[in-house]
Amino acid sequence: NTRNLRGxxxxxxxxxxxYDSSQGPSTLKQYFNGNWGLLCSHPDxxxxxxxxxxxxxxxxxxxxxxxxxxxxxxxxxxxDVNSHHGWxxxxxxxxxxxxxxxxxxxxxxxIACQLGMLxxxxxxxxxxxxxxxxxxxxxxxxxxKLTLTYPASTGRNFVEILRVIDSLQLTAQHACATPVxxxxxxxxxxxxxxxxxxxxxxxxKGFAIEELPSGKGxxxxxxxxxx
Length: 227
Description:
Elements: E1 18-19, E2 26-27, H1 28-32, E3 36-41, H2 48-62, E4 71-77, H3 81-95, E5 103-105, H4 110-114, E6 118-123, E7 129-131, E8 133-138, E9 144-150, H5 158-173, E10 176-177, E11 188-190, H6 196-202, E12 208-209, E13 220-222
Parallel strand pairs: 3-4, 4-5
Antiparallel strand pairs: 1-2, 3-8, 6-7, 8-9, 10-11, 11-13, 12-13
Helix pairs in contact: 2-3
């Protein structure tokens, strides 16, 4: 498999791929097991940016940032299991953190092809495409809630990814959306499909309507319903 077969869009169900990994074989559904999931691909083992990324992922994981959000983390690249085992030693030496999450060995590129992860520019020594820096946030229902794609030259910001997970989890439970630069604990916006009368019941902490020239009253802020 050397070409992307399809893209995956928001709301699609993640196929239940069987895989081998640095922690042995499993399936994605069995691994996530009804939790939220974070699937991150990286271009190649033993490369500088990937080493810093997976070290930071391990640090946040060990701090409990994912566990307290009921998120299970898993990595992926086209390297084999032996390569992952050796590289993990480098990640742990560099970061000072133990890597407790599995890294999928997608050496046949089956998962990467299905999820549209393969690069058209970055190739391995055999001329086969490497995976880009893809991020998938998966809900407890195995549906795709968010996708992000970074080029090989740009490392990911996992603090931003945690922020997005906070937003996704908040808005999955409440009829609100999160405004620009929102972080957990700040005011959220009430979605337009909720009337002011309904909002009084749904948001007992109250809400404020921003006065704007149009007078349409669509910009309504409410304290973080989860706080």
